Amino acid sequence: MTWRALRRKLLAFHRWLGGLSALFLIVVSLTGLALNHTELLGLDNVAIRSSFILKRYGMSTGADIVSAPLKSGEFISRLGGRIYLGTEPLAIGGALLGIREEADYVAVVTDADILLLTPDGELVEQLELSSLPMETVTAVGATSAGAPVLVEADKVWLVMDDWLDFEPYAGDYSVAALKTTPLPDALRAELLNSFQGDGVPLYRVVLDLHSGRLFGWPGRTLMDLSAVAVIILVSTGLVTWLRTARGRGKKEEAAQ
Hints:
It is a single chain. By secondary structure, this protein is of the alpha+beta class. The protein has two domains: about 5-55 and about 200-255, no CATH class; about 65-180. About 40% of the residues lie in helices and about 25% in strands. It has six helices and 15 strands. A five-stranded antiparallel β-sheet has the order 13-12-11-10-14, with no helix packed on it. The chain has a four-stranded antiparallel β-sheet with strand order 2-3-4-5, with helices on one face. Helix 1 (about 5-35) runs antiparallel to helix 5 and helix 1 (about 5-35) crosses helix 6 (about 215-255).
């Protein structure tokens, strides 16, 4: 292959690669400029609470809130894998299955554990299902006499008075689905504020956009490829320039 043909291919490849990587290079350049002037732009003083951004950082937007009212007027809610009483976090827990309220306790049953609360909402104990006789719980029910039962896929357990002992049960029972209800707007907003804090600092968003981390491994891969593209563009540009300069030098020597 002659140098002229190779040069044409290099130029075509150079143009194609430059056009393909231009967008990513612009993003890297703009975000780099912003990061170099963080104080001037006040990036640390701005918080982002966009649902898209919150999801990228694993922060709930509130769409997954599940809440159930108590007789006291309070709400038991689950948000982001955590169980709340009102806006007060109680514990990390599973999906809500049922709530049993008695005069001296409140039992919150999830598919991973049981939370035992005082009537005032103080967490007394968290019992993981792995430490109890049952392997999983699919529903909460009651016998005809009103005693609570926990339902497994193929077995039913009678709950004793202290919620620490359980016996196999073979009698009649009924299951009522957990009565969920949307939180009042003010309480929902307060709960989200408690969970999300001030949101995500703009500086963090710009930094992660600069590195591609905002979009996970695909974003990092694209930014890595754009960096490789820059190296290739510079290399092929230098090679073309050097060969052109050398050719001109030879022509000038021949002319003399």
